[in-house]
Amino acid sequence: MDAHAAAADPSVADLIAARPHLAMHPFDGLVLEDVPLNAIADALGTPVWVYGAGTIRARLAALTAALAGVGAQVHYAVKANDHLAVLRLMAQGGAGADVVSAGELARARRAGIPPDCIVFSGVGKTVAEIAAALSEGIAQINIESAAELDMVAAVAARLDRVAKVALRINPDVDAGTHAKITTGRAENKFGIACAEAAALYARAAALPGVAPVGIALHIGSQILSLAPYRAAYARAAELVRTLRAAGHSVRRVDCGGGIGIGYRDEPGAAPDAFAGTLRQAFAGLEVELMVEPGRWLVGPAGLLLASVVLSKGGERFVVLDAAMNDLVRPAMYDAWHAIVPLAAARAAGAVAAVDVVGPVCESGDTFARARALPRLAAGDRVAILDAGAYGAVMSSTYNARPLAPIALVDGGNWAVVRARQDVHDLWRGESVPEFLDRPDR
Ligand code: LLP
Questions:
Q1: What separation in Å is there between the alpha carbon of 76 and the centre of ligand 1?
Q2: What are the chain's domains?
Q3: N or C, fewer C-beta in 10 Å, the chain?
Q4: 375, 321, 318: which is closest to 345 by C-alpha?
């Protein structure tokens, strides 16, 4: 292996073995569920996203089963992957939705998630968004500040509705995750300080048009240790006791999301262990529990297929036709995503350390640095794994690169569920004002 290789990257065989939805067939190459990924790349070109419906169903069923033991309801965090087909799978699997915008609310409704299974989170809901949520009659609005409580009360009064609200507290706990995706520290913009929560709950209880149903918290994303959850939920349980002692009814605790997955060779969080943490933290309180997982349900179920355009720098750089505009996680969070060749013969080859980059004009457009990979030649295809969460939803058209298509695999079938964006779509809605071309200017 090349001298600048990162310490012991997992082999292609190990990466595939750790992912039951993937297999390497000697002739067909990499297969997702029962569909050879080359067939999709042949039909749609690259880059292309592929999601596995069976994998999403299986993960939702596993998490739901683990949480059923503690009576916790799953509200899928739509932001992780808001494709209508993904949301339909969630609806069919009995999950509700956690939304953070009127757009996500509309998507969830469109996909068939009933309004009474939807909660609305987020620090900056606008009056229009609050009105949309109340008109739909959603289950709960998570209030993130005193100012927002007043806004919700005002909108509810105007629409003659009662807003069921939970107060999102900020437990000031370090989730031990990347700084850009930690949300439960005092310095983060989210939630209400625990010290202020009791007074605000009392205020909510007194306001007409607002009915406080409980509290909510979400401490961050890609959390692999249970310790931060234990600390945060202990604070939540303490607050429930304080509020009840003050005579308030506290029916529900929305425990947020954040359950991590294994991207490299670290084990992902286990649903049973997470459920055990909930059981311990809220034992004896008789609260309805809710969780808002996103990544854990869909992350492993999606991948991004790309082709090698060329190698350069004495084969140090492998340039793909996918870029940071497609999958921004490596550029934005230094995230590690497995990269696997589609062809069995390639996957079995000797490895060398390479930088896998995209064509965008930024050095940050790098999917992997000094990654131990089998030799790849122009035209070879690779799959960037575990890209089902915060993948396509975070894409942009930077460098005027149209959005990649999406295919959904289900058992042995597959379908295009989003067409490749046409270059003309890039300037739809734009215009050049006539006065720019006036000769007299
Ligand atoms: N609930 C709330 C209020 C949230 O803010 C989030 C995620 C979730 C639930 C779902 O968290 P999950 O279970 O997916 O970890 N783009 C970043 C992740 C940002 C997460 C934002 N909030 C990434 O690619 O890692």
A1: 10
A2: 3-52+299-427 (2.40.37.10), 53-295 (3.20.20.10)
A3: C
A4: 375
